[in-house]
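Researcher: Structure prediction, please.
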Amino acid sequence: MCRTMLLALVLGVVLTSSGAARGQDFAHSYAVVVGVDDYSGLHLRKLTNAESDANAVARYFAAQHYQVTPLIGPQNATKSKVGDAVRAIATRITENDRFVFFFAGHGKARHTEGVDVAYLVVPGGLSTDDPDSLISTGDVVAYSRELDRARHQLFIFDSCYAGLMGQFQTRSAGAPPLYASESFLVRDLSSRKVRQYLSAGGEDQEVLDNGPAHLSWFTYFLLKGLEPGVVTRRDSGVITFAELASYVQALSANPKHTPAFGSLAGHGGGEFLLLSTAKGVPPLDPLPTIGVQTLRDLGFLTRSDTPERVGTRIDRMREPIDLLYQAWLQKDFESYMRQLDGGVVQSGRMKSGTTYQRGYDEIKERRRRDFDRLERVEVGKYEVMYQGSEGSQATFGVRYSMTFYWKDGKVSQERNISECYRVRELPGEGRWVIVRNDDYQHRICGQ
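Model: Predicted structure follows.
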């Protein structure tokens, strides 16, 4: 049993009613915040900062005018009380409202009938196998469905194996441009449906718990990134999900866990937005600043020479990978090939054990045949993990599950496939392309 950092299943756009966010016109904002340190009743290790994380996150959303239901401590953070809180909000939530769920505590994974399933562990049961002690992926889906009338939903999981929560996604969508005017960010991107997530560790990774200011390392970076001027210098305080996720991803990467973020089922091309801590009432006190050298000494940032700058560029670096998967969904051969460098190399190992290495021309020939034969493609899972960068090149790990429906009626599936991508920036174009793809890895590169 362990604790990881974050999977954020974002089913909406989070903004307060002040400043530029007023155009979103939310009537009510709700948050359920769960945190527990003491698991003595389940004979699990006591956590250091889960309740502190939950209290800090509750303060943030309360300052942003959310009606917060805090379920903090072993007497409150039970499955029955979580369910009661969700159902109480479900009875009054409308399409003009939004909802956030945050959990900090132990997590667990089970391998059942060939499938790994994630659970949030809560007090209340007799053991860690007791259903009363486990909030499953299915339970989270049920919460979301009960709250279906809400225009926007956000789920944040600060627990071990939370990366597995992403497995109930069914489709992936490419991100819209993130460099437009602020009025575009607020008016257009916030009006579209959003299904996004952020995972501090992969589905099989543990994460460091004991961070600065009595927080886990992830919650520290999450709240630090929401401080004014850290991620963006917009006077309004508006911060996009991609900007915040890129910052967290770049700075919290370490040998134990590699953050990932992506799109989930139903993503409609919008963008998750927040306001800085300074825009809340009352504004939150700034967290201590941890120097880059200190982070390196602690084992962070081992694969990035310029983490302060990289954080704001990751969304552009990973764009060709996102667009590659989007091309599969749209059966867009030309878009697929546009993401590849002319000197690209693809290597891998087939199930038979046969290895291969392909260049641009062979990839082009094979993909043209594939796209001609395809009826449709479904992406069942898709997460991208930043591995580091050097100069004009960067490395990402990808884990995905896809189902291919062919015109001849055949169906083929690829489940929990790991890949490694290296991308480079094209001089003078401001765009990145894929220069290497290592297919069918046993583990994501860098893990």
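Model: DSSP finds twelve helices and 18 strands in the chain.
Researcher: Thanks, that helps.
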